[in-house]
Automatic annotation (TrEMBL):
One of its GO terms (biological process) is SRP-dependent cotranslational protein targeting to membrane. It is an enzyme of class 3 (hydrolase). InterPro entries: AAA+_ATPase, P-loop_NTPase, Signal_recog_particl_SRP54_hlx, SR_rcpt_FtsY, SRP/SRP_N, SRP54_GTPase_dom, SRP54_N_sf. This is Signal recognition particle receptor FtsY. It comes from Aerosakkonema funiforme FACHB-1375.
Amino acid sequence: MVFNWFRRQHNESQEQAQDKSASPTQVEPQTESPVSESGEVSSQEQVADDYLAWAKAAYKNIQAKQRPQTTTTPSETESPTQAEAEPQLVTEAVAPSSESQAIPIQTETPQTESDAEVAVEAAEQALEELETAVAAESAIPEIVAAEVEKVTSIAENVPDLSVTAETAENREGVAQEAVPFWARDDRQARLQRLMETAIQEPEPEVRPVSATTEPAAIAEFADVVFDDGFLWSAEVLAAQGRRPEDVSIEEITWLKKLRQGLDKTRRNLINQLKAIVGQGPLNQDAVMEIEALLLQADVGVEATDYIIKALQSKLREQALPPEQAISYLKKILRDMLEQPFVESYKRTFAPEKDTFNIWVMTGVNGAGKTTTIGKIAHLAVKSGYKCLIAAADTFRAAAVEQVKIWGQRSGVEAIANPGENTDPAAVVFDAIAAAKARGSELLIVDTAGRLQNKKNLMDELSKIRRIIDKKAPDAKVEALLVLDATLGQNGLRQAQVFSEAVKLSGVVLTKLDGTAKGGIALAVVQQLGLPIRFIGAGEGIEDLRPFSSYEFVEALLSG
Ligand SMILES: Nc1nc2c(ncn2[C@@H]2O[C@H](COP(=O)(O)OP(=O)(O)OP(=O)(O)O)[C@@H](O)[C@H]2O)c(=O)[nH]1
C-alpha cells in the first residue's frame, strides 16, 4: 500500500478522500485535548502524557518499520558472497534517509551499506566475467588477466567487501576446470593475489539487535529521551488526528526541518507577542508593537491589519492569558491561510490517479523552480505516479541540463529538445506525446521565467497552454508559481505579474529555511488570494512537502 505524499494518506483510501471536502492536512486540530478520546478537557499534564505516549508509539512503529531491513539473516538461497556480506554490513538500525539524526535515539548511519552492496555486485559481476572469459574456448591470456585484475582492484578498493577465501576458492574451483592450461599458472598467481588482498575482514560477526528494538523493550521505552523536535513533531501530527502507526520518519524529519527553518521568524515573533497579547485588551502601544513584529516577518500591511483587528475584537470580549491569546492568534492565521479554499480553490492538490495531469511550473529564475520540479517528481514517484518532466525552459541551455539532473535524481525522465533556443511549445508537444505513449499520470512542465517583458511571458505561457489544450484536451491542467520566500514583499510583486499572465492554481513557497520572512505566506494568501500548495525548506530532494496551514502556523508560533 503506497503512501500518497500529496494527500498524506495511503493510496487505498484516495477515492474516499476525493469525496471529502477536507484533506487530512486540513483536519481541524483538537486544541484542548488532542489525544484524549473521552471528550473531557484534560489537564495540561494529562495532555503532555498523551502526547508522550503517542510519540513513544510512533517511535516504536518507526523502529519496527526499519527492523525488517536491519536484522536480515542470510537465506539459504543467497550466494555465499551475499550471505557473508550482509550481516556484517546491515545489522544496525537503518534510517531510511540521510537524515537519520531525526530519530531521537541515534543509530549508526549505514553509509557503507549501499557502497558495499554496489561493490559486492561489482565483484560478483567481475568474477562472473572472469569465469566466462576463462570458460570460453577462444579466451586469450590477456583477457583473463584483465578480468582478474578487475576483480583484484575492486577488492582492494573496498576494504569492507566480504569476498572471502571460500568465495574465491569456490569460484576458483569452478573456474580452474575451465581454464585452458596455458592460462593456468598466470591466473593462479593472480587469483592468489586476489585472495590475499580481498580477505580483509575476519568472519563476519552478527551483532545482536539492540535491546531497544526488541518487542518487549519497545513496549516500555521507559528511559528513552526524545528530543524536542521529535516531541513537537509528534504533537503536531497527533493533533491532526494522525495515528502513530501511520507516521513515518520522513514526516517527523520534515516537520523538524520546517520548524527549524522558521526558527528565525518564530524567535522574532513569539516571545514578544506573548508578552504583548497577555496583557489584556490591546492598547495603542500594543497594537503598534504587534504591527511592527508582523511587518518585520513580512506578513504585509493588509494581512497585519486583518490580524490585529481580529485579535483586538477577541481581546475586547474576553481577557485571555498569554497561551490562550496565542492559541487564538494561531486560529486567526490558520483561517487566513485557509481562506482561498472557502471560495475559489479545491483543498486537495494531488495528481488524480489514472488521469493525465499536467502541472505547469512558473516563476522567475533563481526562485527554486528546477529544484521544486525535482522534488515534486520525487514525491510523485514515491507516491506511485508515473511521471515525466518537460524541459521547456529553453531560454537557458543550462536550465535544460539542470532539470535533467533533477529528473535523474528522482528517477524521472526529462523530455528535452536538442538545440539552443528551441520553441518551448514544441518541447511541450513532444513531452505530451511521450507521456501519452508511456501512460504517464503526471507531466511537470518547466517554463522560462523571464519577467523583463510581461508580454513575452504571457505569450510564451499562453502558447504552452494552447498546445496543451490541443494535444491533451482531457488533461487536468494546473499552473503553479514558485516563489522565493526570502524575497519577502518583493516576491509579491513578481507573483502579481505571473498571476496576470496565467491562471494560477497556487504557489510553491521555497527557501523557508533560514529566512526571517516566513510571514510572506500570509501576505501571498491575503493579498493575492492564492493558496499555498507546497513549501520548500532546504535544498535536498526530501525538502518539499504539501502545505498544511496547521503545521505551518504551529511551526511559526509554537514557543
Ligand atoms: N535553502 C534553500 N535553497 C533552495 C530551496 N529551493 C531551491 N533552493 C536553491 O536555490 C537556488 C536556485 O534554485 P533553482 O531550482 O536552480 O532555481 P530556478 O528557479 O530553477 O532558477 P534557474 O535555475 O536560474 O532557472 C539553488 O541553489 C537551489 O539549491 C529551498 O527550499 N531552500
